[in-house]
Every structure is written in structure tokens, then in C-alpha cells.
Amino acid sequence: MTGPGFAHLLRLGDDTGLYEHADGPLPRREHGYCLDDVARGLVVLCREPEPSADLVVLVERYLAFTAHAQADDGRFHNRLGTDRAWRDEPGSGDWWGRALWGLGTAAARCPVPWIRTAALARFERGAHHRPPSVRSMAFAALGAAEVLAGDPGHRLAAELLGDVSSYVGGPGDVPGWPWPERRLFYANAVLPEALIAAGHLLGDPGIRDDGLRLLGWLLTVESAGDHLSPTPTGGRHPGAPRPAFDQQPIEVAALADACARAHEVTDEPRWLTGVHRAVAWFGGDNDLGVPMRDAETGGGYDGLTRDGPNLNQGAESTLALISTLQHGRALAGSAG
Prior knowledge:
Elements: H1 7-11, E1 22-23, E2 26-27, E3 33-34, H2 35-47, H3 53-69, E4 79-80, H4 94-109, H5 113-126, H6 134-150, H7 155-168, H8 190-201, H9 205-221, E5 223-224, E6 227-228, H10 249-266, H11 270-283, E7 303-305, E8 308-310, H12 315-335
Antiparallel strand pairs: 1-2, 3-4, 5-6, 7-8
Helix pairs in contact: 2-3, 2-4, 2-12, 3-5, 4-5, 4-6, 6-7, 6-8, 7-8, 8-9, 8-10, 10-11, 10-12, 11-12
GO biological process, one term: carbohydrate metabolic process
Organism: Saccharothrix violaceirubra
Protein name: Glycosyltransferase
């Protein structure tokens, strides 16, 4: 499978932001924009080691959207209509966490100095919140990890990252179910990834090892033989039958993110398995043996149903594809 392409991401956007939904490869403009997706876009674009001029323009656009979404108190709106009016009040749900993830990544990795400065200021405006949702906090922790890796003395980032372990918790003592929740939900691998990042950057091997243990268990649970069989949209409880549908690309991308970080932290080859399985899932090595990407458009399909792919190519699924292929390319480059 080739590396990531950005043609479909360009197709899904305009000079305001990124349309959330698509009908096949065509953006459904009537549904408007979503900060969740724009923030995911900031993450993947700022991971590019040598972004083209077109991609830098997208970073500028996504950063402007994220800044516009942020209220004075650091919380964020999530949904913007095509009339450029917000459809919600500022909050600290998942979109707050993803916004801090995107801003932290831009602040640490973007090659354009003014973008790094502006992104860091917006990160700092929002990093003092502590929402009730564990996933909101875990997404934000990944942004804090980016900031702290570049600036080990950054107090706000260190405090946010230091608080995430109390949200996630460590492995439980239920036989066969060490997961800290009673069931798996969505983007599950972000929880152990946040622990791995916190333990590594804050010098706490216990927290790091908790994250590695949870991730190893999750990789086993979300595999069937040699391919991924991820948690479906309805979640998964102990003893649930498999395969189960609908499967979402975001689950696969989160697992690739976490395994790539685990490999970076430990240099243990076993974590490469997770990345390779995630890349292969999009290529057709999944429960139905069908590709989950459109080779012509570069878009990612919205989900794997029991009847085959959902052929719509929205922003979330396309960014999940791009993110996963970035990890595959990085590992191929290091192996070469």
C-alpha cells in the first residue's frame, strides 16, 4: 500500500474548513463543518515531515477555524453551519480534547514559526480545563505530550499530562478483562496511549507500563487471527461474539497511533504488529476481506458493515486512513 495522499482531503474542504460528511466522494455541504474533524486534520497535516505549500495552506485554514471556535475561557464550539453560524455553545467534550491535540501537534511540529507560536497560545488558553470525560482528557493529553516533548519545562502541558492517569486508571483485576471500563467504547487505544505518553515524558515507568499492558491486551482483543477485528460502533462487552459491525476507521487509526508510540518508547518489535495490521485493515485484510479505501480518490470509506463497506468518504474516515498510512510510511522508512 502506498503512503498517504491528500487529494480527497482537499476535495472535502473550502476556504472555511472541512466538511464533515460526504455522499460517496462528494462533500455534503449542507451538513456543515465540525471542529472534531478540523482538529484531526491539524494532527495529520502537522505530522507531515515536509508538507507541500498546499498542505501548509490547509494548516493555516484549520488553525484559523480552531481559533475561531475557541471561546475566551478556552472551551470550544464544535459545529459550524454553512451560514458560518455556530450550532452549539462552547463546551469541553471530545472536540475540546481533539482541539488541544491538534493545537499541541501544530505547536510542536509545524515547520512555520508563526503557526507554532499561534497554536501554542491557543493550546495554553484551553489547557487548564479538566472535563469529566476520560476520552476528552486523553485526547488533550496527546496534545500536551507534543508540547512537553518539545519543551520539557512547559508547566501547563506537564500538569495536564500528569492528571490523565487519574482519569484513565490502571489495569483492573477482573480475570480476562483488565480494561479500566466495563466495556470497550470508541477510539479505545487513546486511553493506553495517553498513559504511555505520560509515563514516558514524566519519568513514571509504572504509568508507562500500565499503558503498555492495556495496549497489549487491546491489540489481542481487537484481532482475529492475523488481522484486526475492531470494536464496533455499539461497543464491546466481555464475551461478545465476533466479528461485530459496524467497524469504524477511527478505531483502527487510534490503535495504529498507540502502537506507533509504544514502539517509539520501547523499541520492541511486537508493537509493529499493530501498525502493520492497521495499515492492512484499510487494504482489505479485515473481517470481510474488502478494501476500506478508494484507490482512485484517496478517500477512506466511512465504515465496515456486515454487508460490506459504507462507500461514503467523509472527513473522519479519510483522516483515519491518512493517519494510519503515515505510521506505515514512517516504519517502512526506518526499516529501509
